[in-house]
Amino acid sequence: MILILLSVFYVLAGASNAGFNKYIVSQKAFGRKFSHSWFLNLIMFIGESMGIPVYYILFKKKEENKPLLIVAKKDEDEEKKEEEKEGEKGIPTPDEEEEEKKPEINKFLLAIPAFTDTCSTGLANIGLILLPASIYQMLKGSLIIMTFLMSKFYIKNKHILDHYIAIPVSTLGVILVGLSAYMNAAEDEEKGNKDASDASQTLLGIILMLLAMFILSIQFCFDEYFMRKYKCHPLICIGYQGVFGFFINLFLCFVFYFIKCGSYNDNEEPEYLVENMCTGDDKNVYRPENIVFALRQFVENKLLTALVPIAIFFMSSFNILGVSITKYGSATTRSVTDNIRSFLVWLWFLLPFNQEDLIERFNVLQLIGFLCISMGAFIYNGIFKLELKKQMRNKKIRLEQIEGIDEGQNILDSKRTTVADK
């Protein structure tokens, strides 16, 4: 029951987080949309840093009260049952004992994944500005492909046959989702819809999202390495990544403010990359990020002022609930809830009462792509167990048994024939 409730709230928090971020970047002040991808990063990292106080409030006291020794088991055959009971009573299990033997992580090491998180999320936020919210969310399904490649060729993890089937299925899904977005944008461009992104902007958004997921897979490799080697509660890891990420991003925002991409008159059109990768202010000066103008817009637009704290709340809730699901559930649970979250975001932005420029239209190609991404994730995480290798092995054994029976029958028949001849 606890896991079901956690999963429901996790899905709602994740979908709300994606939705509110899209609403934020669509708001206008001083005649400009709030297209501040790196400022959005600051919001995200504030939400992540909330993991530290939550850890000390909810988990620290429980960890301190855990007994240091394991109660001896009476029957070795009941090890698993005893471990489950011990976990429920707060007595450390062998896995927890192994965890306790690990050295405490040096918190400054978490600045490494925080830097990769800064880069990946900054690029993904530009993708969010250029793409419909559902496409942005579904393209995150490419993370499983990038993580597979990194774990295969860098970490050298072993993979089962099901994984090798799941990846092409997910890849097909990502291609179909991206293609549906491009086709919709091309159609809008033909109709002269100025509120929608044109086809070239959509293509750029897709490329940036895929690049962001590749960088995020590198971060996951660092996270996996640190979690294996050091003792670090997931909330502490997320929290300190949030703190380091905030200051790294703040430094980048400061540097970006002094870099000018270009300055234009009212009748001049900025270059393609300048318009889409940089942020323009009310004086038509473009910078990679303009934190001063972002704060001015934040104060000017009252709806924006209300949306940002809500987004921080949902981001922190999303991270905390994600850690809780990992604790009480499994990667399988996380996979199912992530796909439900993508579907909810899509469903929400299909509804007609949304802000006019955010309403999406149904596309069969996108639905097929989403189903392929979901199917790939389910196969990869063992929800749908193909076990082809096992099936082929069993088939081979059955064939050998049949051949053995046939051979035995032939020998028996030949003996009978010999006896009959005598």
Mean pLDDT: 78
The Cα radius of gyration reads: 27 Å
Q: Which sequence of SSEs, written as H and E, runs from N to C?
A: HEEHHHHHHHHHHHEHEEHHHHH
Strand content: under 5%
- Global morphology: globular
Helical proportion? over 70%
Low-confidence stretches: 68-77, 83-94
Strand count: 5
Tell me the number of helical segments per DSSP (H or I, 4 or more residues long): 18
Distance between the termini: 77 Å
**Structure class:** mainly alpha
Name the descriptors.
422 residues; mainly alpha; three-stranded antiparallel β-sheet; two-stranded antiparallel sheet; 18 helices; 3% strand
Mind explaining what this structure looks like?
The protein is mostly helical. It contains 18 helices and 5 strands. α3 packs antiparallel against α12 and α8 packs antiparallel against α16. The chain is globular, with a radius of gyration of 27 Å. The chain starts with a helix and ends with a helix.
Concise overview:
This protein is an all-alpha fold and 422 residues long.
Question: How is this fold's topology laid out?
Answer:
Layout (H helix, E strand, L loop, with lengths): L1 H25 L1 E2 L2 E2 L3 H13 L1 H8 L1 H5 L14 H11 L4 H8 L9 H20 L2 H7 L3 H11 L7 H31 L7 H31 L4 H24 L4 E2 L8 H6 L1 E2 L4 E3 L3 H10 L1 H27 L2 H20 L13 H17 L7 H34 L1
Antiparallel strand pairs: 1-2, 3-5, 4-5
